[in-house]
């Protein structure tokens, strides 16, 4: 990724990890603001959704970087459709269990 640098590679992954933690902390506050009571099972569903989303984006761009453009576009397209369907289903499930 950074061929002639010894610090930029680890620094990039530290920043990505911090952003991932902040994203889940923000999601926790967002769910509290929307009065959605979260339990362990719901957090696992949200985590799996984000893993599929990030995996399809990361895998697709990795394939594109390996000069497999068509496979990368298919990978991101199929992963994107699965992520959208899964995201809508999870969002409806979370809103149905909202505390009034």
Report what the structure shows:
By secondary structure, the protein is an all-alpha fold. It has 2 domains: 1-33; 37-100. It is 80% helix and 0% strand. It has 3 helices and no strands. It has helices spanning 8-33, 40-65, 69-96. Helix 2 packs antiparallel against helix 3 (69-96). It is flat.
Give the secondary structure arrangement, pairings included.
Layout: H1 8-33, H2 40-65, H3 69-96
Helix pairs in contact: 2-3
Sum up the structure in keywords.
single chain; 100 residues; mainly alpha; 2 domains; 3 helices
Q: Please outline the major beta sheet.
A: none
The whole-number mean of residue pLDDT values reads 87
Rg to the nearest angstrom? Answer: 17 Å
Q: What's the structural domain tally?
A: 2
Quick overview:
The chain has 100 residues and is mainly alpha-helical.
């Amino acid at each position: 990724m950074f061929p002639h640098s010894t610090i930029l590679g680890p620094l990039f992954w530290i920043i990505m990890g911090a952003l991932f933690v902040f994203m889940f902390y923000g999601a926790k506050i967002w769910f509290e603001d929307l009065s959605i009571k979260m339990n362990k099972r719901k957090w696992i569903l949200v985590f799996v959704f984000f893993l599929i989303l990030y995996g399809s984006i990361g895998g697709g761009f990795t394939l594109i970087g390996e000069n497999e453009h068509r496979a990368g576009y298919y990978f991101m397209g199929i992963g994107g459709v699965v992520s959208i369907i899964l995201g809508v289903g999870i969002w409806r499930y979370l809103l149905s269990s909202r505390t009034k």
